[in-house]
Amino acid sequence: MTPSARTIQHFKKAGFFVQNVEMFIPQINIRRDLFGFIDLVVLDPKSEKIVGIQATTLAHAAERKDKIINSCGKTATAWLKCQGIIEVWGWHKYKIPIERKYWRPKIATVTLDDLPPCLLYT
Q1: Spatial distance between the Cα atoms of 76 and 79, rounded to a whole number of angstroms
Q2: Measured in whole angstroms, how far is the alpha carbon of residue 110 from the centre of its chain?
Q3: Neighbouring C-beta atoms of residue 75, cutoff 10 Å
């Protein structure tokens, strides 16, 4: 199961609205994320939040967060200024289950404080 599929499953079980927004471009054999960094969009009507999620393995989570900060700073800043939340979900299979689950995500949030100050005023 892919990290995106695990994340979708997690949110659907919790009753959230979740949509995969990553697209595959077969002509050039690449995947393209929404705004360069979002794989999934999650809506939580109860808390009135919208979350853009980059789903990956724990081994790649730090580099995905760095990519958002360093390569997608303008779109990430715009997303955050529009009250969106950015999270990187790094999935890992643990040896000891919690609530009968071996696969659990480590979640890192990207905030305006993480982004270069020059982007905050554009």
Answers
A1: 5
A2: 9
A3: 18
Three-state secondary structure call for residue 36: coil
Three-state SS at 26: coil
Q: How far is the first Cα of the chain from the last one, in angstroms, to the nearest whole number?
A: 39
Tell me which amino acid residue 25 is.
Answer: I
Give the list of residues 6+ apart from residue 10 with CB closer than 8 angstroms, or none.
Answer: 105
pLDDT tens, position by position, 60-113:
999 999 999 999 999 999 999 999 999 999 999 988 877 778 899 999 999 999
Closest to 18 in 3D by CA, of 4, 3, 37? 4
- C-alpha 103/C-alpha 115 separation (Å) is 30
CA geometry: angle at 57 spanning 33 and 71, to 5°?
40
What is the three-class DSSP state of 118? helix
Supply the pTM of this predicted model. 0.90
